[in-house]
Amino acid sequence: MCKSGSFVSTVGVESLTERFSDILRLSNITVDQLTEARLEISLVNLKYFMKRMKKEDLQGLEDCLAEAARANRLGLSTREKNILFHQLIALGSKNPCSYSCIILCWKY
Question: Is it the case that residue 21 has pLDDT exceeding 90?
Fold first, then answer.
């Protein structure tokens, strides 16, 4: 006998990112709106990163900054390091939804 009710499942980061991506493709979101949202999401991620980070999370950021500085001195693009920096903060926030949002925002 079947009973009605809520079904709760764990949503993977890839699945969540894919769903958000579909929403973006089907809407009329501008680059300015996406940038504004990314900045706000980054601030929230940073707040939780500061509360939840582990020593290795902070070390990852320091390593990323050092690599970006090195690339900059060599005249190389630092875009990928910038993206990685934001991804590391999102990972350090220990919230998979935050990470998924950052992945999505940098994807477009």
Answer: no
